[in-house]
């Protein structure tokens, strides 16, 4: 009997979840059974019910799924070992610096690196950034061409470049930090169409870190209706049906950290928001 969930089934299955992240394929018993019909059984193959000759099955003769996981490049261990399931994960965040591939989560004195919705590294801010000033309060940031651009509570901009061969450490670029021309309160930042959008509560502006200049302020509601009030950061991703934003924000009532998915074409939130622990795949 054919299974429509099998990888080899002649039907289209979605490859992205509701947050626009790639979902690894699931190898089902029907895929394994079909392969065995062609290539024969493995010598040390599946040990299931003795009545199962071709398709692997469990004691209840039910379909068994084998998960193909996405490999994450190994990273340096810093103070806390990264395991398949972590008990120390960021429940809340004070700032986010992200692009579509990597998210840096600032949570109290800790800094987390997230890729493919997995925590791959955790440490103190100084473990990532050389000569880090712990009195600095980061409000938001973003990633451009591998460099970290961070904005603090004093509206200063810090530009950290990756150090080649240092296993993911960053160093402050000469001439930084700099005082920005931004006057409004800074909450979050997202790069959209290659432009850094800096968000306040009601307004936003376009900032260029290369020339350290900022546009005039625009009304957030006019261009981004139905946006969460407090956004700490996020990233944009172009998909088949348009551009979607993943927003790391804060619930206006509970003040708890929430993650939203925003459709730029429909100008609205898609689906229900998630908290950080449900967003991450390797946290309890």
TrEMBL record:
Taxonomic superkingdom: Eukaryota
InterPro entries, sorted: Hemopexin-like_dom_sf
Protein name: Uncharacterized protein
Native organism: Acrobeloides nanus
């Amino acid at each position: 009997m054919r299974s429509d969930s099998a990888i080899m089934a002649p039907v289209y299955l979605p490859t992205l979840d509701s947050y626009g992240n790639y979902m690894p394929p699931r190898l089902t018993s029907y895929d394994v059974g079909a392969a065995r019909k062609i290539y024969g059984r493995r010598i040390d193959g599946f040990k299931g019910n003795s009545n199962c000759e071709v398709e692997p099955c469990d004691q209840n003769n039910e379909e068994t799924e084998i998960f193909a996981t996405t490999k994450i490049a190994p990273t340096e261990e810093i103070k806390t070992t990264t395991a398949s399931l972590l008990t120390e994960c960021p429940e809340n965040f004070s700032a986010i610096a992200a692009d579509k591939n990597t998210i840096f989560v600032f949570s109290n004195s800790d800094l987390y690196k997230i890729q493919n919705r997995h925590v791959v590294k955790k440490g103190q801010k100084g473990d990532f950034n050389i000569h880090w000033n712990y009195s600095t309060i980061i409000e938001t940031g973003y990633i451009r061409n591998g460099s970290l651009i961070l904005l603090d509570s004093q509206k200063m901009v810090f530009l950290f470049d990756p150090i080649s061969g240092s296993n993911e450490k960053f160093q402050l670029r000469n001439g930084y930090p700099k005082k920005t021309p931004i006057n409004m309160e800074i909450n979050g930042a997202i790069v959209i169409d290659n432009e850094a959008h800096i968000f306040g509560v009601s307004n936003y502006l376009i900032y260029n870190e290369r020339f350290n200049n900022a546009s005039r302020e625009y009304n957030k509601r006019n261009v981004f209706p139905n946006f969460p009030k407090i956004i700490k950061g996020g990233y944009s991703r172009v998909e088949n049906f348009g551009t979607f934003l993943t927003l790391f924000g804060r619930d206006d009532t509970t003040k708890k950290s929430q993650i939203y998915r925003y459709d730029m074409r429909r100008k609205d939130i898609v689906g229900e928001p998630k908290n950080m622990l449900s967003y991450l795949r390797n946290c309890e």
